[in-house]
Amino acid sequence: MKRQLVLENGEIFVGEGFGANTVRDGEVVFNTGMTGYQEILSDPSYCDQIVTMTYPLIGNYGINRDDFESIFPAVSGLIVKEATDMPSHWRSESTLHDMLREKGIAGLAGIDTRRLTKIIREHGTLKGRLCDADEAPVEVVAELRNTQWACDQVSRVSTKMPYEIPGNGPRVVLMDFGMKKGILREINRLGCDVRVVPYNTTEKEILQLHPDGIVLSNGPGDPKDVPEAVETVNKLLGKVPLFGICLGHQLLALASGADTVKMRFGHRGANHPVKDLQTGRFYMTSQNHGYAVNPESLAQTELEVTHIAINDQSIEGLRHKRYPAFSVQFHPEATPGPEDSQQLFSRFLQDVEQFRKVGVQYA
After folding, report:
1. 200 known member of a binding site
2. Do residues 61 and 186 both lie within one domain?
3. CA-CA to 349 of 20 to 30 Å: which in 24, 142, 211, 282?
4. For residue range 145-165, what is the model confidence (pLDDT) as tens digits?
5. The sheet that has 163-165: what strands, in order across it?
6. Taking phi first (over 0 means left), then psi (-120 to 50 degrees means alpha), and beta for anything else, what does residue 59 get?
7. Is 0.90 topped by the overall pTM?
8. In 10 A of CB 317, how many CB atoms?
9. Which of 289, 291, 20, 324 is nearest to 180 (CA)?
10. Inter-CA distances, 73 with 157, 160, 240, 288, Å
11. pLDDT of residue 336
12. 193: domain CATH number?
């Protein structure tokens, strides 16, 4: 079946539809990863986004039961140059097409993804719609231009009820803003007793769980759309060690008095180089974010920069000068992707152990 992508600037791409036969709107972004399409499609941080894969061949190793980052994908659509319908891999259990159809995700193949990526790089992220080829583009463009960006993504992808993953180690509260399963896996792998809580859990409710440390997860959208989370993080500073990842990094910055800004087209891929300013080492990282911390806003805060992106010098890591709290914009749990920065979870546990020695004060 013929399907088209219509962008709010009037650009049109016509190709072959696959996956679910649905009409979906979203923010059109691109990801530079060569692999990892299953994890990308199930990453809650892609809520309301139509993802374009810059690597030309997608679906070649199929879909398996274990590599999902969430049970219910929130992505709006997938755009590829070529979608393989005959995957070859020993773990493959279904095709990309079958997975998209089962999860209600629209796909578009056979278009010039290089040209689309260049448009996004030039104009920034754009609203788009995946729809049947016979829909009138002029009407679609008018509707897209009159559509306001959604601001409730975090509330839609966060867990609705708290739950526990038992362990014999320190108790860690994981605030779920759209958490990837990989984050939970890494914390649990270190033996922690994990309590996952919704995004709007209050400071009082969190402290009643008597945590030894708190992890602020990744998630979709603008961090300023969840002011209740910013307030909670602000109240937790100094009471329990904090570790923020991606959106959690931005929330820690806002809670400490800094500001965030929307990027032109963001960072999405598994090949983003980052420099650790403390050690001088370089890491290859996996990233997925459309917002960043404004460097100029740090002057009046107690935050210091620990990591920067090599490609554009944007802030990739922060540390609080007075409290045991740090964060990174990239994904240290990255799967698939580089594992260079997984040691950050161990560093967080070191903060937890050191804080426990002096006695936790929840006042």
Report:
1. no
2. no
3. 282
4. 999 888 999 999 999 999 999
5. 163-165, 193-198, 171-176, 213-216, 242-245, 325-328, 315-320, 303-309, 260-276, 282-293
6. left
7. yes
8. 25
9. 289
10. 9, 16, 32, 15
11. 67
12. 3.40.50.880
Residue 291 marked ligand-binding:
yes
7 and 87 within one domain = yes
Same domain, 140 and 157: no
Summarize pLDDT for 236-260 with one digit per residue, the tens. Answer: 999 999 999 999 999 999 999 999 9
Can you list the positions of beta strands (E) in the chain?
2-7, 12-19, 24-31, 49-53, 57-58, 77-80, 82-83, 106-109, 126-132, 163-165, 171-176, 193-198, 213-216, 242-245, 260-276, 282-293, 303-309, 315-320, 325-328
* 126-132/24-31 β-pairing: antiparallel
Residue 287, marked binder: no
Q: Is 219 annotated as a binding residue?
A: yes
User: Which backbone phi and psi does 205 adopt, to 5 degrees?
Assistant: -65, -35
207/125 same-domain check:
no
Number of structural domains in the chain: 2
Residue whose structure tokens are 């804080």? 355
Bridge partners, 275 (sequence order): 282, 308
**Do residues 50 and 70 share a domain?**
yes
CB atoms within 10 A of CB 26: 21
Flag whether 77 is marked binding: no
DSSP β-bridge partners for residue 7:
128
Instruction: Give the residue numbers annotated as catalytic, written as ranges.
Output: 246, 331, 333
* Residue that finishes a domain, picked among 90, 112, 145: 145
Q: Is 309 helix (H, G, I), strand (E, B) or coil?
A: strand
Specify the pairing of strand 77-80 against strand 49-53: parallel
Q: Is 104 annotated as a binding residue?
A: no
Whole domain around residue 239: which residue ranges? 153-358
* 290 in a labelled binding site: yes
Q: Which two tokens stand for residue 281?
A: 């080492």
Residue 329 and residue 219 share a domain: yes
